[in-house]
Every structure is written in C-alpha cells, then in structure tokens.
C-alpha cells in the first residue's frame, strides 16, 4: 500500500485517466451504437459487460506491451508511434468509421461487438498507457495500469459525452492532451535499453535533466507537427472547395 503514497504513482494514474478520456472517447460511442437495438431492460447489462470485457482485454494487451518494451529499440518505436498519435489528436477529425459498428438485438452479440471494436481501436490506448506506466517506474506497473483503467471506466461510459462537449468548447484541452502524449514519448525514448548507456547514471536510472529535456522536446514536437500538418490539411480542403 506504500505505493499509494508516491507522487509518481498518482501522476501516472492521472496520465492514464487523461489518456483514456482523450483516446477512449470513441468507446462510449461504440458501446451506444452496438447496444442501441437491445431491449431497454438489457441495455445496462450490455453496456456493463461490454465495458468489462473491453477493459480486461486491454489489461492483457498492456501486460504484453510492458513486457515487450524491455526489448531494445521497441521503446524508440513506441515513442515515435506515441508522437504520431499525439499529432493525430491535434488534426481535424475525418470520417470516424462508426457507421461500420453493427447493432444487435441480442445481449451477448452486442457485448462481442463492443469487445471486438474496442480491440481494433485500442492500439493507441495500449501504447500510451504502457508509456505512462513505464514513466512511473518501480515494480507496480500492472497494479497502476489496472487502477487507472478501473477509475477510467465510469468516466468513459457515463462521462465521455460531457468531456467531448468540453473539448469542443475548450480546444486547449485537446492540445494539452496531445502534448501529454509527446511528453510521455520523450521519456519513453530515453529509457530505451539501447540508450541507457548515455542517458542513465551509475545506478541505471535515467538522469532527471535528460528525462525532462526529452519529455519537453516530445511535447513541443507534437505541438509543432500538429499545427503544421493541421494548417496543411486546412489549405488542402480550401483548395478542393
């Protein structure tokens, strides 16, 4: 229980919740679409079981992701993917593909649809959450991931529409969210085993100055790339109209 007293633990939990709100907003839409033809008496069960199944699947995926991140160069690849996910968060939204979600009037068929759709949509969440857990360090990564995801469940299922409206009203929230992913990517990159010879001290811990510099650079890269590509996309749309 002493891990609950560590600042790093609560910072990582906050990052995981923020990531799940920003990248998991579509989950509530998927759940609603998959369960919309269920009998009203079964909708709550469909939502709950679909969400539970999706969260369990995500914990399993993140477990493998945390294991794989110990391999040289994979953290660098993960950092690049995180930067791109952060940049995509700042770009204008296109067709989200929700029309491909098939509704069902049978409970377990709807639950299966929610879980399969979440699996397809979860790559960005898995990489980002694994990166946030890695940043916390220590031997409590999986408890941290599970705790963060459990806290996120009610936010995703019942609060995501409110959060989405807030993000529409205050676009700065999305910008900070994208920069957060860049921050995590920067830290992840310098903790790759292949770079520890240059980034870590004698105890094998990444130096604070290196970590903060890389994290700040990652956040800045996401912001600049997002703005640059966003302007380019806007110019292209204006040219076609």
Automatic annotation (TrEMBL):
<feature type="transmembrane region" description="Helical">
    <location>
        <begin position="12"/>
        <end position="35"/>
    </location>
</feature>
<dbReference type="Pfam" id="PF03741">
    <property type="entry name" value="TerC"/>
</dbReference>
<keyword id="KW-1133">Transmembrane helix</keyword>
<feature type="transmembrane region" description="Helical">
    <location>
        <begin position="47"/>
        <end position="66"/>
    </location>
</feature>
<protein>
    <submittedName>
        <fullName>TerC family protein</fullName>
    </submittedName>
</protein>
<feature type="transmembrane region" description="Helical">
    <location>
        <begin position="170"/>
        <end position="190"/>
    </location>
</feature>
<feature type="transmembrane region" description="Helical">
    <location>
        <begin position="144"/>
        <end position="163"/>
    </location>
</feature>
<feature type="transmembrane region" description="Helical">
    <location>
        <begin position="210"/>
        <end position="230"/>
    </location>
</feature>
<dbReference type="InterPro" id="IPR022301">
    <property type="entry name" value="Integral_membrane_YjbE"/>
</dbReference>
<dbReference type="InterPro" id="IPR005496">
    <property type="entry name" value="Integral_membrane_TerC"/>
</dbReference>
<keyword id="KW-0812">Transmembrane</keyword>
<comment type="similarity">
    <text>Belongs to the TerC family.</text>
</comment>
<keyword id="KW-0472">Membrane</keyword>
């Amino acid at each position: 229980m002493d891990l609950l007293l560590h600042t790093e633990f609560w910072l990582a939990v906050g990052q995981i919740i923020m990531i799940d709100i920003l990248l998991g907003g579509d989950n509530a839409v998927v759940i609603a679409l998959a369960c919309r033809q269920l009998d009203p008496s079964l909708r709550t069960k469909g939502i709950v079981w679909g969400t539970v199944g999706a969260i369990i699947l995500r914990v399993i995926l993140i477990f493998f992701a945390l294991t794989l991140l110990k391999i040289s160069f994979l953290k660098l690849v993960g950092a690049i993917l995180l930067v791109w996910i952060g940049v995509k968060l700042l770009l204008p939204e296109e067709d989200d593909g929700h029309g491909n979600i098939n509704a069902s009037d049978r409970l377990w068929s709807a639950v299966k649809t929610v879980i399969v759709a979440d699996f397809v949509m979860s790559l960005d969440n898995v990489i980002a959450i694994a990166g946030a857990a890695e940043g916390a360090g220590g031997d409590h990564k999986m408890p941290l991931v599970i705790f963060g995801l459990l806290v996120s469940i009610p936010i995703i299922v019942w609060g995501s529409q409110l959060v989405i409206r807030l993000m529409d009203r205050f676009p700065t929230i999305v910008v900070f969210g994208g920069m957060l992913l860049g921050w995590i990517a920067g830290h992840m990159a310098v903790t790759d085993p292949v770079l520890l010879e240059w980034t870590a001290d004698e105890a094998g811990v990444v130096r604070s100055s290196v970590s903060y510099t890389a994290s700040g650079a990652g956040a800045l890269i996401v912001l600049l790339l997002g703005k640059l590509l966003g302007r380019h996309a806007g110019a292209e749309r204006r040219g076609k109209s």
